[in-house]
Amino acid sequence: MVTNPIPQFPAGFLWGVSTSAHQIEGAADAREPSVWDVFTAEPGRVKDGSTAAVACDHYHRYREDVALLADLGVDAYRFSVSWPRVNSPGGLDFYDRLVDELCAAGVRPVVTLFHWDLPVTLDWLERDTASRFADYASAVAGRLGDRVAKWITLNEPAEHTLLGHALGAHAPGRRLMFDALPVAHHQLLAHGLAVRALRAAGAGDIGIANSHGPTWPASATPEDMAAAEFYDVLLNRLFSDPLLLGRYPEGIGELMAKSPEDVATDLKVIAEPVDWYGINYYAPTRVGAPQGEEIAFGGLSLPSELPFSVREIEGRPVTDFGWPVVPEALTELLTGFRERYGDRLPPVVVTENGCSCEGVEDRERIAYLDGHIRALHRAVEAGVDVRGYFVWSLLDNFEWAEGYARRFGLVHVDYTTLERTPKASYGWLRDLLRARR
Ligand code: FCB
């Protein structure tokens, strides 16, 4: 059991929890379909064959969920707006009500504009989707901008590109391998255009949420080192270098230069300064040279033709998802970011961190969060300007291709009755937040 008090974070540090629209809202009949609705309807795509048509029914139960947030005592709540819902009559009214409810409860709304549920009529392979995204961002800001505390343009464009378009494990289920790179570029362009559109609509405090984690080479052989370097570029630099330095990493830059698009001009839009940079962290990855066979990795099956292979991190507890629990890698990640980007790195917010485990007496989750919050504090002590920490997630929810089999919530959801039951970790976090005051 955890006994030492968590050290104090700087004044104004924002404590929050995160969710996303497709994973919790349900009410699929009150919006246009998204690429995820199409994907989940295809047999074999989602492990337990489930869909998010009802999910946690947050759309109808948001008042109860906001009461849970208020009781938990978080400063902020990160949720996403569903673009397909906004495209549907009355769609923005729901978010208007939610934001009002949050403000009345003293919880600051943090809005993600895109958390993977693209309207089915759109496609990230098309450049025009970037402009459509900026129009959508303006519409949301026009309606909610007076009450939203922070904006996030995109959630994890790296995972969305890799899982959705390169490997086919997520919607829209394409297996394009490196031909998926235009999807990365168009999302980055969408981000830059949306930053401008949000500012033009009077919105401020704008960031992005990217997934990152240290890459550890399997050994010091040149083959393993080169493979790890390549993986690191894909996960840790493909999006942050253009955003923060205004250029693509070497190698990727050459691939992009072959595209018919004016990448150099686009990079000026992409590098529009953000007010803060969001990092979603779960685990580090050990990477070595390709081993010539299809391998299982965190619920995924990675094709053998990739120029790297993912290896096990031994000697660590693993979550239900099979992800190793390595809190100190969060300190390494954040101090490494500070070293790489120096003064180009704006203040950082950890926009997601958490683990999947079963049960309401979730001691593993408490240990996970405790370890990671301490690791975060060490990064602050080392001089990284970290302004907030958001737990993934408030509720158990629809975990994409894993369906309802993975439970990340501080609050248990019974998917038959939709009853919410706060877990031990919810009580632990509430006590932590109260002690801080
Ligand atoms: C992140 C996603 C989030 C959730 C967690 C477990 O990659 O942003 O929606 O699925 O993983």
UniProtKB/TrEMBL annotation:
Its EC number is 3.2.1.21. The keyword Plastid does not apply. InterPro entries: GH, GH_1_N_CS, Glyco_hydro_1, Glyco_hydro_1_beta-glucosidase. Keywords: Carbohydrate metabolism, Cellulose degradation, Glycosidase, Hydrolase, Polysaccharide degradation. Pfam families: Glyco_hydro_1. It catalyses: Hydrolysis of terminal, non-reducing beta-D-glucosyl residues with release of beta-D-glucose. Belongs to the glycosyl hydrolase 1 family. This is Beta-glucosidase. It comes from Streptomyces glomeratus.
